[in-house]
Design brief:
By secondary structure, the protein is an alpha+beta fold. It folds into 2 domains: 93 residues, no CATH class; 98 residues, Immunoglobulin-like. 33% of the residues lie in helices and 21% in strands. It is built from 4 helices and 7 strands. A hairpin with a 5-residue loop joins strand 1 and strand 2. The radius of gyration is 18 Å and the shape is globular. About 2% of the residues have low confidence.
Length: 220
């Protein structure tokens, strides 16, 4: 399970979001203890999300914010690991469900370990809807829009900037999705601003491939 729960905070945030989103959608179907989930795990997740978001802004990041972010993860991660064990041991959660969440398991259907990705996604931009951008992603140089074999989904680093970023670490926001496209909804005040983004593939065990080119799109 060490690879189910990544060590890096950015990867941890992506993985926990996928697991909890899927679990919340299936809480009743999977017969997860709703009292424990809603009263213990979700508040710990909310605290992590708030402190992680605050820490990502380098202009306001302080040693205190770093400390509270680390404490939030320390409190949240054991609960997330407990949830993962519940999901792995439940007969109601299928191997396909576990695979979609990136959870390693000995249940059938895993298909063995897939190597770390060695390609990266290209992207097409859909700006046909006001205040919305859709980033459709597919394997670099491929005519097919299907994900490569063994790929769980795509990670994205992104940010709104006036100037082009010279490094992906300047893109302070991160997200993960298992199916194309990424869809971003913005406020009226954001129209005309530039969204900068960069994509990478991630396999079913959480290993990332190389980051692609930094792209951009104007918010319609």
């Amino acid at each position: 399970m060490s690879k189910t729960i990544p060590r890096k905070d950015a990867d941890f945030d992506e993985v926990q979001a996928v697991i909890t989103t899927k679990t919340t959608q299936n809480l009743g179907n999977w017969m997860i203890d709703a009292l424990w989930y809603n009263n213990q795990l979700i508040p710990a997740q909310s605290r992590w999300t708030m402190d992680w978001t605050a820490w990502q802004n380098p202009n306001t990041r302080t040693s205190l914010i770093t400390f509270t972010k680390n404490e939030a993860r320390k409190n949240y991660e054991p609960l997330l690991r407990k949830l993962v064990e519940m999901l792995k041991s439940s007969s109601l959660v299928t191997p396909a469900d576990l695979k979609e969440m990136g959870i390693l398991t000995d249940k059938g259907g895993g298909g063995g370990h897939h190597p770390a990705p060695n390609t990266y996604p290209d992207a097409d931009i859909d700006s046909s809807t006001i205040r919305r951008l859709g980033i459709h992603f597919f394997d670099h140089g491929s005519k097919s829009h299907a994900k490569p074999h063994g790929i769980h989904g795509a990670g994205i680093r992104w940010g709104l900037r006036e100037e082009a970023p010279t490094d992906i670490n300047l893109l302070n926001n991160s997200s993960f999705v298992t199916h194309s496209p990424f869809t971003f909804d913005f406020n009226e005040a954001d129209r005309g601003k530039t969204l900068w983004f960069c994509l990478c593939w991630e396999n079913t065990t959480g290993e990332k491939g190389p980051w692609g080119e930094i792209g951009s799109a104007i918010i319609p």
